[in-house]
Design a protein that fits this description.
- Helix content is 33%, strand content 31%.
- It is an alpha/beta fold and 246 residues long.
- It has a single domain, classed as 2-Layer Sandwich (Nucleotidyltransferase, domain 5).
- The chain has an eight-stranded mixed sheet, with helices on both faces.
- Helix 1 packs across helix 2.
- It is globular.
- The protein starts with a strand and ends with a strand.
Length: 246
Amino acid sequence: MHTHNQYREAILGVDLGQSQHPTALALLLNIDQTLSRHAWRDGTESTTKHWLLAFAEILPLGTSYTQIAQTIVTKLANLRRLHPIITIRTVADATGLGAPVLELIQKEIVHYQSTNRQGVGRLEGILFTSGTAVTTTHHNTLPIDLFHVPKLTLLNSLATAIENNLLQVPAKLPHAATLLAQLQSLEIHHRENAQPQIKINRQGDPESIAHADLVMALSMATWRMTTLYPNGTRPSIHGPGQLPLL
């Protein structure tokens, strides 16, 4: 049996850390997969769609924002070499100190493009909000779209992808265990006459689950993928409880 993959889109989610928690990266690939008895496709096989978590990484605490920007572009450049024609997007946390970091990332992207005459995709920002509305604005000086998205909406897109078997996570993926621990630690509490509240259950190892960095990076990538390729829009979170597990 031969596997034929068509890579449609790559989205890198970046949850920017500050002094108390690290930066996390999560790369999601949108793949059309066809299984064939031949080394070619004859048009009779069925094709399945899934979103593959290609890599997840937690950068060391204290990594400078300049180093973070350089690391991001290095990852994107490696991806471009592997998949020369795939569409690439980076969605980075633009909340608080994330705003000036977007400028550093964009500067590194422009430098890479001018040096290598090859692009590494589009940069976008996500600002975490409360409430339920999703809005879009533009950066004051850079060609960057800014999406204002409630954290619960981001998490809900990840939960829906998991429930609908859209998301695939390789068992041997580095940090897979940390990602699972962070998913298990997140709880959604509904309050009367108020917006649901996101809490972290810290009964486990607080060093591995605090702030749920990987979950937020993956949630950003998943939410953006959902906006580009709508699939599985059924509401996922019902009352208090934990997000679905991988």
